[in-house]
Design a protein that fits this description.
The protein is an alpha+beta fold and 110 residues long. The protein is 60% helix and 13% strand. The protein is elongated and about 65 Å long.
Length: 110
């Protein structure tokens, strides 16, 4: 069953914007270099209208920057805007590090 998500639920912040796998794929593809919409379409095999919609969501929440050169637009990931996501995931990294340390300690006690 396909459910349409209201735009307000996908454009409010970085967390809701990256909830979509296609948008995460686009961010990864754009990391480190800027690309055109046609580059994204070709590499990720997503239809152009969908790529444009995803880029709009990412742009609206600040996760991508755009540079225009004539009629062509070039997009790149804005890593600074991902900082809240990174900080949130760091919480879980510390949790897993602690859990792995406990497992190691238990294994060494036996």
């Amino acid at each position: 069953m396909i459910v349409d998500v209201p735009p307000s639920l996908t454009t409010t912040d970085a967390f809701s914007a990256i909830a979509d796998q296609n948008r995460r794929d686009i961010l990864v593809f754009l990391a480190g270099t800027e690309r055109s919409v046609s580059d994204i379409v070709d590499a990720l095999e997503i239809r152009q209208p969908s790529v444009s919609k995803h880029l709009k969501v990412l742009r609206d929440v600040g996760l991508v920057d755009v540079r225009r050169d004539g009629r062509q637009a070039f997009y790149r990931t804005n890593a600074t805007a991902l900082k809240p996501v990174r900080e949130w995931t760091d919480t879980f990294e510390r949790f897993w590090r602690t859990q792995l340390s406990r497992i190691k300690e238990r294994a060494e006690q036996k």
